[in-house]
Amino acid sequence: MLHNLKELSDFGLLILIWLVQLIIYPSFTFMDKANLIVWHPKYTAMITIVVMPLMLVQISSTFYLTYNNYNWILLIQSIIIIFLWLSTFLEAVPLHNQIDSGIKIKEASENLIKVNWKRTIMWTAIVILNFINRFTT
């Protein structure tokens, strides 16, 4: 049951990150400064309602399963999740804060796309590892 919940959160985050990477973040670069300053705080508040529960389920279920049902795939996923959280809170969040402040919005939006590629690859790797785990254990 917990393993299914973990995989569901992993897959939900995978779909979400690809939508963010290919559609949402690039759209910021097409918005004028005034509209982006108004829209961005609303966007971040709404997306947090979706993302945080998924991230919390992912980290707690993965760490619990790694501790109680250890295998090398769960360990790798746990390490990836640590790097995801670091990237999110040390790289992406400051760029969102920069956009909210109205300082160098275009540059921050472009940097957000670049930084987010790491997160997109990491969440994709987690789901690929789920498939490997299913077929090797």
Characterization of this structure:
This protein has 137 residues and is mostly helical. The chain has one domain. The protein is 91% helix and 0% strand. It contains 4 helices and no strands. The chain is elongated and about 50 Å long. The protein starts with a helix and ends with a helix. The relative contact order is 0.16.
Task: Describe the protein's topology.
Elements: H1 2-28, H2 33-68, H3 72-101, H4 105-136
Compact summary:
The chain is mainly alpha-helical. Helices cover 91% and strands 0% of the residues.
Largest sheet: none
Which word captures the global form?
elongated
Number of strands: 0
Query: Uncertain runs with pLDDT below 50, 5 residues or more?
Result: none
> How much helicity do the residues have?
over 70%
Helix-strand string: HHHH
Category by helix and strand content: mainly alpha
Question: What is the beta-strand fraction?
Answer: under 5%
Mean pLDDT across all amino acids: 96
Rg, rounded, reads 16 Å
State the main characteristics.
137 residues, mainly alpha, 4 helices
